[in-house]
Specification:
By secondary structure, this protein is of the alpha/beta class. The chain has three domains: 86 residues, 2-Layer Sandwich (Gyrase A, domain 2); 259 residues, HUPs (Rossmann fold, 3-Layer(aba) Sandwich); 167 residues, Orthogonal Bundle (Isoleucyl-tRNA Synthetase, Domain 1), CATH 1.10.730. The strands form four sheets. It has a five-stranded parallel β-sheet with strand order 6-5-4-10-11, sandwiched between helices. Strand 7 and strand 8 form a beta hairpin. The longest helix is centred in the middle third of the chain and has 25 residues.
């Protein structure tokens, strides 16, 4: 039983002894630590029914609570118009440091979702196109959500869905064939091959809009991909897809993601078409040679979407139906989470409405989460067309800036590149995860790599600093302990025990920003304490306790950063 459950039980018992009615007991942390560690508004909620002034009722409740106050409470008081504030005791905070030490990397984990199977689909880059910053956003959010659900006890599988058929492929293949003399050699790097594909797609996309002859040829290629492409085109198709997938794996390694399932559009397209055809005339209908779903008939907020176009080719919508049915038939998850960009929100609302009619059980377990866009504070890194920036170039540019920052530090040259990569990824991921997922973000290069303030590198630096203190304590044989306590309770102690609550909330709300905000807060508290306190001091009775607190802080930071999908360097 956690501290919140204990407090709720204590309050419930007090209400019963006063003959007060049952109520939902909510507990919150006061914004100001001087107001206590928990507060409840139960007296305000019950005052009318109890025919009492809220503050007077709160006073009566506090009187009963104080008579029964357990060891983990030092003070209970009435505040404001009738709030009840609880101050946890020194013994509680000392015990919490011990619990963190004993639980180690399991601190913050729970078994709430034990026995549940979760499937999280995210990133989803398309072969024949470059891995752009939108994919970085989906990856950061999806990876963190997968880790949060795992921490709550779920068995989580990760899926990446990739569009290897469709107009974008045809546009790229058309330009590849046109520029076949410039095809990268077998020994070219994955980045060179990916860049060639990016240029090809850009050229094909431009001419598709401006050249009628090229448009006709691209449309024919698109159709032939579904019906069986000629040998030479099939060879280019397989080569381009192979290059793309190899490059994506390179990026996943840098980001720290490993997928359990990879699904290609070509693997689910026929299932999607079959579903549409099966329900044509009931759920779907023909319109001007296409097959559509008129979602607005059931929900005026929705709209009509095409599932098979007038050329007889399936759209993204039909393929998505096939994908979701495959998830259900092959994996049968208790929860299927999909992360995409905000611009697909309305599309998914219609898709899920169609899925609800075809397979309501599948719709019931399917959850769509959308994220915002990334923009740049100083206008840097505009691409050839001004709208597509590769994920790889963002990582490389950030890494370059980190390397410049590290060059003046006492770090071996051979270690700088690896550390710079870890720090750069943390800078980008934190910039994405620090706020509500659905919001657009402004990426500021200088702020993102700062070792001070609201940034990923600041979190890493704080953790490395704590580890350095622990290494010093080990060298000087000062062992962590909570037996001797002479210092007053400091704000850091009053925050560390809250980590499991934060993790639970972040998982429930699908909101990694709660973890990011909490880690910034405790890092700030640790650094302020570090600046004013001699933590490791021989022959000082308080030193072992301070080392214990430092160890607890480092452990919570490591656990939190892991949930955000960040690695921690050995030095910075």
């Amino acid at each position: 039983m956690d501290i919140q459950e204990k407090l709720q039980g204590l309050i419930r018992s007090a209400l019963e002894s006063l003959g007060l009615p049952h109520a939902v007991i909510t507990l919150e942390h006061p914004a100001d630590l001087s107001h206590g560690d928990y507060a409840t508004n139960v007296a305000l909620v019950l005052a009318k029914e109890a025919r009492s002034n809220p503050r007077e009722l709160a006073t009566r409740i506090v009187s009963v609570l104080s008579e029964r106050a357990p060891q983990y409470l030092s003070r209970i008081e009435v505040a404001g118009p009738g709030f009840i504030n609880f101050h946890l005791s020194r013994a509680f905070f000392s015990d919490s440091l011990s619990v963190i030490g004993k639980m180690g990397d399991r601190f913050g984990h729970s078994k709430i979702l034990s026995g549940k199977k979760y499937l999280v689909e995210y990133t989803d880059p398309n072969p024949f196109k470059e891995f752009h910053i939108g994919h970085l956003m989906s990856n950061a959010i999806g990876e963190s959500l997968a880790r949060l659900c795992t921490a709550q006890g779920a068995k989580v599988k990760r899926m990446c869905y990739q569009g290897d058929i469709g107009p974008h492929v045809a546009k790229c293949l058309w330009a590849m064939r046109k520029n076949i003399a410039n095809l990268p050699s077998r020994g070219a790097s994955a980045s060179e091959k990916a860049a060639f594909l990016g240029r090809s797609y850009a050229e094909g996309s431009t001419l598709y809009e401006t050249d009628a002859s090229a448009k006709a040829e691209i449309d024919e290629i698109n159709k032939s991909i579904y019906e069986g492409a000629p040998r030479e085109l099939a060879r280019l198709y397989k080569l381009g897809r192979k290059w793309s997938l190899e490059k994506f794996e390179e990026i996943y390694r840098i980001l720290g993601t490993r997928f359990d399932y990879y699904v290609l559009e070509s693997e689910v397209v026929h299932d999607g078409v079959a579903l549409v055809e099966k329900h044509k005339g009931t759920i779907f209908e023909e319109s001007e040679g296409a097959v559509v779903f008129r979602a607005e008939r059931d929900d005026p907020a929705l709209h009509t979407r095409v599932f098979i176009n007038s050329q007889g080719l399936p759209t993204y919508e039909a393929k998505e139906l096939g994908l979701n049915m495959r998830k259900w038939n092959k994996i049968r998850p208790d929860r299927s989470i999909i992360i995409t960009a905000n611009e697909q929100r309305d599309y998914f609302r219609v898709l899920l409405a169609a899925l609800d009619k075809i397979a309501p059980d599948v719709r019931a377990i399917t959850e769509h989460i959308s994220h915002g866009m990334m923009r740049f504070a100083d206008g840097k890194m505009s691409s050839r067309k001004g709208n597509v920036i590769t994920g790889e170039s963002l990582i490389a540019e950030t890494k370059k800036l980190v390397e410049a920052r590290l060059s003046g530090r006492d770090i071996a040259l051979k270690d700088q590149e690896g550390i710079a990569e870890i720090v750069a990824v943390a800078a980008i991921k934190y910039s994405i995860l620090r706020q509500v997922s659905s919001s657009d973000i402004i990426y500021d290069f200088d702020k993102s790599i700062s070792f001070e303030g609201d940034s990923g590198p600041y979190l890493l630096y704080s953790t490395v600093r704590a580890r350095s203190v622990l290494a010093k304590a080990k060298r000087e044989k000062v062992r962590p302990s909570v037996i001797t306590v002479s210092d007053p309770v400091v704000p850091l102690e009053r925050m560390l025990y809250r980590f499991p609550e934060v993790v639970s909330r972040a998982a429930d709300e699908r909101a990694p920003h709660h973890i990011a905000t909490y880690l910034i807060e405790i890092s700030s508290l640790f650094n302020a304490w570090y600046a004013s306190t001699q933590i490791v001091l021989l022959h000082d009775n308080a030193s072992p306790y301070r080392v214990q607190m430092t160890s607890a802080f480092a452990q919570v930071m490591e656990n939190g950063l892991t949930l955000l999908g960040m690695r921690i360097p050995k030095e910075m």
